[in-house]
């Protein structure tokens, strides 16, 4: 029995009852002979409430102070969890990100972990303690200021600690049973995936699946830490994310892992761009200089009569205003005719390593959409993913049609509870 | 213009509006040319809410984790306050107790400050910042664990920082206008005291006055840091507590500083104690071994016929049960007949350095009580204080009678708002 890192999201520790339930589960792992390190998020809506308060006192909260504020949430949950464990007769010690040795850069509100030096955690474990660590937070290497890791940061804390402590698994506890072949709120027949490779999970995460964030999976792949995503409300096996299916489990890699969708993006079309070298570069340099992340990019074939073309790209809706303003400012320099902004779009993606060796997948995907009467506006592909942009109104029907077409539907009709994962 | 330390209690920063009001006051001090260090308590009832949560997950919260939990409250208020100040266009940085160099012993939940090394605060000030420090918390010297200073700890943080930074004054902002000659909720004609000596303030604090805690005043006296207790809701001068009245102010030391009362104590009478050497020692050794603090002690003259005497003492009601149990266990060894427990008592104290040179004070005190029909059960005196124990029902009438008898009543009838001071 080795060391396990368990991470519990905000919905799992939303109140005193939740904390006691989680404490019992942690003690069970300890009784089974494991050394246990627990990473915990802030209780329920604590973080949102703190953000509300910050906005009330200052319209633009400052980075350093904002991080100090937000990290109070995990201090509360980790201390309560340690108390609840002690109340069950086991020894527990809680540690802030700083005490746990989570060293980050100095980019407040979205710091990156640059080192983990878990000396105090190791000592606590060696002395027979369960170690409870505040997720989502660290301390900056140069200034020794408190930092936060941004959305999904607690998952990254858990994987980073698992890597630094050479854990045998990082268990991510949440309020769903695992990773599904599609969002069960949209597809009633979505199936829980027993095992999925890091690569497919990365594509799902970047295509709209919210169970695990891209950064956390990327970190786990780099250090080869198996992740087990599972429910804190049941004792069921969840979804294993790793390089290889575990030796004692016969899990065949599916051709298609799942269908993801994302309605958080908007589309900008730059109309009437001269079809000559340097034009696309000028557009995307403008976007990059404003630190806006873009996703899909498509350039139409130019009309021979005018020598003009259109360039479309997608980006988070939240950045739409900024992108439009930036491009308008450079209009004369870039030399386009106009901009079109559309936030009524959805992206639907089919993910699976099997499509590399199964040439019919792309055709089957488009046929399924066509049969469902869904129009395709943009297409983008990677080696193991195909994504299309459609009207937002069509998204549910499109996802269901593709899910059925690729034989992903479950045989049973059992209801699945699904929600967010905290952070 | 020198350095000032300002401390704001929980009631002053109870919500976003309060935080913005306090931020404005801090900025005003900065604009007046001061270097400003601010010590802040947790918002409103935050601490009590956290204690409630702790009791829900564990009946006996553990020291180290309990401290970690409680310190989250000040992290929230200090970060919000720093944001609010920045929003007014001034630079502010917040610091935890640990970051501010508040070094304590390892006694969780009631740690004592053993050193203050405010290097980061000094740097922040030198760079033109306003420094915001979390009250009530520190870090233990040996284990580097987070500690809390117990009730009133934020005031002690403020005075300790003022001493370490050689501040010209420590301003304690609260929701009352200062220290009064009696509790204004009981005595409508109580007057605000303009200046009071450390010694008289210490006696008032240990006699039930709640505006400043004994430990904080003791610390200020040791390092000769003037304290200015004042309201965060008005711009009025409050009460100065110092060795000497300030040079530019003509304040005559009153014979009597004020009347304090305390209804938080109970009385235990040990009945039928053999009147021989070692008996009292055996009783109070038992009490001390159980870490119970006692206040007044009175031994009656023994009855010649029986050779037995009674010993009475007062102690916090919260420790009553523990004291009774401890004494019962030692009954055979100590050899008393029975125990009587009475928690319907009140202590009334008259405080003033002037009583050293005014021999009529004691007599006047007893006459005032007698005229008001209040029976005296126990008497205890120090050089500058007389205290009596009466029935709890008589306390308000007794305080008013003494206040009037010593000429402390104010001429005006203006209403005074009075409340707690946070912690």
UniProtKB/TrEMBL annotation, chains A, B:
The keyword Zinc does not apply. Coiled coil: none annotated. GO terms for cellular component: cytosol. Residues 268-344, 350-423 form the ACT domain. Signal peptide: none annotated. It is an enzyme of class 2 (transferase). Its EC number is 2.7.2.4. Transmembrane segments: none annotated. InterPro entries: AceGlu_kinase-like_sf, ACT-like_dom_sf, ACT_Aspartokinase, ACT_dom, AKii-LysC-BS, Asp/Glu/Uridylate_kinase, Asp_kin_monofn, Asp_kinase. GO terms for molecular function: aspartate kinase activity; ATP binding. Pathway: Amino-acid biosynthesis; L-lysine biosynthesis via DAP pathway; (S)-tetrahydrodipicolinate from L-aspartate: step 1/4; Amino-acid biosynthesis; L-threonine biosynthesis; L-threonine from L-aspartate: step 1/5; Amino-acid biosynthesis; L-methionine biosynthesis via de novo pathway; L-homoserine from L-aspartate: step 1/3. It catalyses: L-aspartate + ATP = 4-phospho-L-aspartate + ADP. Substrate binds at residues 47, 74. One of its GO terms (biological process) is lysine biosynthetic process via diaminopimelate. Keywords: Amino-acid biosynthesis, ATP-binding, Diaminopimelate biosynthesis, Kinase, Lysine biosynthesis, Nucleotide-binding, Transferase. ATP binds at residues 7-10, 174-175, 185, 210-211. Belongs to the aspartokinase family. Catalyzes the phosphorylation of the beta-carboxyl group of aspartic acid with ATP to yield 4-phospho-L-aspartate, which is involved in the branched biosynthetic pathway leading to the biosynthesis of amino acids lysine, threonine, isoleucine and methionine. This is Aspartokinase. It comes from Streptomyces lavendofoliae.
């Amino acid at each position: 029995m080795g060391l396990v890192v368990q991470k519990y999201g905000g919905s799992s520790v939303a109140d005193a009852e939740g904390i006691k339930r989680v404490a019992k589960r942690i003690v069970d792992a300890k009784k089974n002979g494991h050394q246990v390190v627990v990473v915990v998020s802030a209780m329920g809506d604590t973080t949102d409430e703190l953000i509300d308060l910050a906005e009330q006192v200052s319209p633009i909260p400052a980075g350093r102070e904002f991080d100090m504020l937000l990290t109070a949430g995990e201090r509360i949950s980790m201390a309560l969890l340690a108390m609840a464990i002690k109340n069950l007769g086991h020894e527990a010690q809680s540690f802030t990100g700083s005490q746990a040795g989570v060293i980050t850069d100095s980019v407040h509100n979205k710091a990156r972990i640059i080192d983990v030096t878990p000396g105090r955690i190791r000592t606590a474990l060696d002395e027979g303690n369960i170690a409870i660590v505040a997720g989502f937070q660290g301390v900056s290497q140069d200034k020794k200021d408190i930092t936060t890791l941004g959305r999904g940061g607690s998952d990254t804390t858990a994987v980073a600690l698992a890597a630094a402590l050479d854990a045998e698994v990082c268990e991510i506890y949440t309020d769903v049973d695992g990773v599904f072949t599609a969002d069960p709120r949209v597809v009633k027949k979505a199936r829980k995936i027993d095992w999925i490779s890091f690569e497919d999970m990365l594509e799902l995460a970047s295509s709209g699946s919210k169970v695990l964030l891209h950064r956390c999976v990327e970190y786990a792949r780099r250090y080869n830490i198996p992740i087990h995503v599972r429910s804190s409300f049941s004792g069921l096996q969840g979804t294993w994310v790793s390089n290889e299916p575990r030796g004692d489990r016969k899990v065949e890699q599916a051709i298609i892992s799942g269908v993801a969708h994302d309605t958080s993006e908007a589309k900008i079309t730059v109309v009437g761009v001269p079809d000559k070298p340097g034009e696309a570069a000028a557009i995307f340099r403008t976007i990059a200089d404003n630190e806006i992340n873009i996703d899909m990019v498509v350039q139409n074939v130019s009309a021979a009569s005018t020598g003009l073309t259109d360039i479309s790209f997608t980006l988070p809706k939240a950045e739409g205003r900024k992108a439009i303003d930036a491009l308008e400012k450079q209009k004369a320099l870039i030399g386009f005719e106009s901009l079109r902004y559309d936030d009524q779009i959805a992206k639907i993606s089919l993910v699976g390593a099997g499509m590399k060796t199964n040439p019919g997948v792309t055709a089957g995907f488009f046929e399924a959409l066509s049969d469902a009467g869904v129009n395709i506006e943009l297409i983008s592909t990677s080696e193991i993913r195909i994504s299309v942009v459609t009207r937002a109104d069509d998204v549910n029907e499109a996802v269901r049609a593709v899910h059925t077409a690729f034989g992903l539907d479950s045989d049973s009709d059992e209801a699945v509870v699904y929600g967010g994962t905290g952070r």
